[in-house]
Write a structure and sequence with these properties.
Blueprint lengths: L2 E5 L6 H12 L4 E5 L21 E4 L2 E4 L1 H9 L10 H16 L2 H6 L15 H21 L16 H15 L6 H12 L1 H12 L8 H5 L5
Parallel strand pairs: 1-2
Antiparallel strand pairs: 1-3, 3-4
Amino acid sequence: MPYLLYIGDRNYSSWSLRPWLLMKHFGIVFEERAVPIGRGPNPAHRAYSDNGLVPCLHDDGFRVWDSLAIAEYLAERHAGLWPADPKARARARSVSAEMHSGFSAMRSAMPMNVKLKCRGATPSLEVSADIERIVSIWSEAREGFAATSGSTGPWLFGDFSVADAMYAPVVWRFETYNVALPPVAAAWRDAMLAHPAMRAWQAGALAEGVSLPYDASAARWGGPR
């Protein structure tokens, strides 16, 4: 029986994108079930997700929720989802956990909205600090680990891994709010935007009829371009 993955609206559900992209990249067979999302846990969603949130993975009736927990569950059952080198694997886990728990200023100021394209504006000091840290993570992974991995892949640690999937929503955020990036970080962003599964996710988001009220963050980021 294939996995069943519950996901939210593609335009907004950054957490859902992560396991969906990971499974698509590695050819892990699954069925998906999209459900409408809102602000915070919804008691109505507990029928399929213990915490009332998406994503939630079902494996023959067994439930795993939270994007990082799902990634770890899959990595124990499918080869190659983390880097093979122990130090690269430890670093990939570290930056994935940092993405999972951090960058609150960036998340708040730059909600994921695939349909929206803003002209861009100068971020606050707190958001700038988050952006600088993310750029540092991407650049260090590409220059310090991917370059010595023996892989010619364009991904953070050479070959695609959980770390790439964990930062995928940030790619859409930076694209939406027109954040300028230095060359190494920009090259990884462009590789991610060209990924067939990322393009499929974007197409699905653009086809959705669901739209939340116009977000005030759009005005703060120069309005639509």
